[in-house]
Amino acid sequence: MGASMKILILGHKLQYEIQNVTTAFHPGQKLETVYEKQPDWDVLTYLRAGRQNSYLLLLVKTESGILRSHRRVPNSGERYKQRCETAFGQMLYTAYSGLTGVVPKWGILTGVRPVKNLQQHMAAGCDEPALRQLFCGDYKVTPEKFDLAYQTAIVQKQVLSPVDLRDVSLYVSIPFCPSRCLYCSFVSHSIEKSHKLVEPYLQLLLQEITLTFDLIDKLGLHLKTVYIGGGTPTTLSAQQMDRLLAAIFARIHHPLEECTVEAGRPDTIDLEKLQVMRRWPVTRVNINPQTLSDQVLQNIGRRHSAAQTIESFHQARQAGFDNINMDLIAGLPGDSYQGFCATLDRVLDLDPENITVHTLSVKRSADLKYSQMVRYSAQDLPVEAMLTYTVERLVGESGYRPYYMYRQKNTLSNLENVGYAKPGTEGLYNIYMMEELHTTIGCGAGSVTKMVDPRKNLIQRSFNFKYPLEYTKNFSEICSRKHSLEVFYGDLFQV
Ligand code: SF4
């Protein structure tokens, strides 16, 4: 194999699935996908559609020769594309696991939303044994991961009310942070470098929020949750936060299910800002340690201590918040199994209502490069064991339940992110957004308006400009894009 692994795709368009399964076994390996015959391929996939069946062939070059496998997939029947994907996935799984000894916990399941996948099968009438057979048998998911996804799906069924076509949530983006974390791939700007942008940005954001509520009212939509994220919204001053919340709540005349503010970084939180939030009906805050190791915090470019995080947590309680989420990341540079477990134990001592555990994911735009991250991967850093400890501690002993889950590209060992909550405190916005149950309207730089027709599982997206400066320069364009909501709901309500 050269510097990159060359995958030859012939006769089909299933390259996305094939790349993802390949990456699960070869993390950090550069892939090159080609579509025309050439001799120097490493993996060859071929599909030929016959009269009744399609013939699928996989060849994998190894040091001792070529591994060959093939399948026939009937052309008739439902979900033809998915059956071909699964067949290729299973052949790749067998070949790669034999060659590498790797057993990916999610098998050949590569999508972002494993629970949505489960929910769709449940809605089609699959019971638990049939789902287990499908996931653990066909998709090669381990029983441990199936159980986690299944429990999550059951919790969601318990906490969600029936979907209404007019339901929407609002996401508001504050794309500024006190400093940039090493692994960050968001559009967030360091407040030190872009301080001057904050006030003009906020002024336009308030206008976009007003326009958004005009459209919500005009279209007769029903706002269920609000999420103020970023970035770090608490980089705003107390007075700016007050103006933002005033602009939002001036237009809401019914009780929301939830309003969350990401108070992610303790170096931006103080009692005054928390009290401002409490004056408005903000119901949930995120105070995110990521780790409670000062050394690891330093490694990832965070300029605060673990003690500051704990102090912020107590301030949030003092301000009256009874629903606090704390985010942790498994697999941070320089962390260890013992270090991660100690962090989780200390967070549990604080007794937050929600704990969200992410697996480190590093995208191309992050300062930390994927190749660096892989050095900390599997052998060095037992992220799988960290996540297993998480489930044992939270679900087994402490009364939390998994309530939403998603997977990302380029995570260590291809693992997942899971939100855990004590019963009755689940972050509903997270479920609506992740399972794509209703429309999320995005306001602010880097946000996306995702319009959902739940009956047809149809999704349309409208993107805002990414960076604060772009946002301020192109504000009229942003306002005109918002009217895509009118087009979408005009069509939706005609039916
Ligand atoms: S706090 Fe979050 S958004 Fe801000 S730099 Fe760190 S990872 Fe990125």
UniProtKB/TrEMBL annotation:
**CDD domains hit by this protein:** Radical_SAM
Say if the entry is tagged with keyword Transcription: no
Q: Which SUPFAM superfamilies match?
A: Radical SAM enzymes (SSF102114)
Pfam annotation, one family: Radical_SAM
Assigned keywords, A-Z? Oxidoreductase
Any one GO BP annotation for this protein:
porphyrin-containing compound biosynthetic process
Read off the SMART domains from this record: Elp3 (SM00729)
- Give the CC-aspect GO terms: cytoplasm
E.C. no = 1.3.99.22
- Superkingdom as given in the UniProt entry: Bacteria
Please tell me which top-level EC class this enzyme sits in. oxidoreductase
Domain called Radical SAM core: residue spans: 160-401
The Gene Ontology terms for molecular function here are: 4 iron, 4 sulfur cluster binding; oxidoreductase activity
Q: Which InterPro entries match?
A: Coproporphyrinogen-III_oxidase (IPR034505), Elp3/MiaA/NifB-like_rSAM (IPR006638), HemZ (IPR023995), rSAM (IPR007197), rSAM_horseshoe (IPR023404), rSAM_sf (IPR058240)
Which PANTHER family does the record associate with it?
COPROPORPHYRINIGEN III OXIDASE, OXYGEN-INDEPENDENT COPROPORPHYRINOGEN-III OXIDASE-LIKE PROTEIN HEMZ
NCBIfam families (alphabetical): rSAM_HemZ
Protein name as annotated = Oxygen-independent coproporphyrinogen-III oxidase 2
- Tell me the lineage of the source organism: Bacteria, Bacillati, Bacillota, Clostridia, Eubacteriales
Gene from which the chain derives: hemZ_1
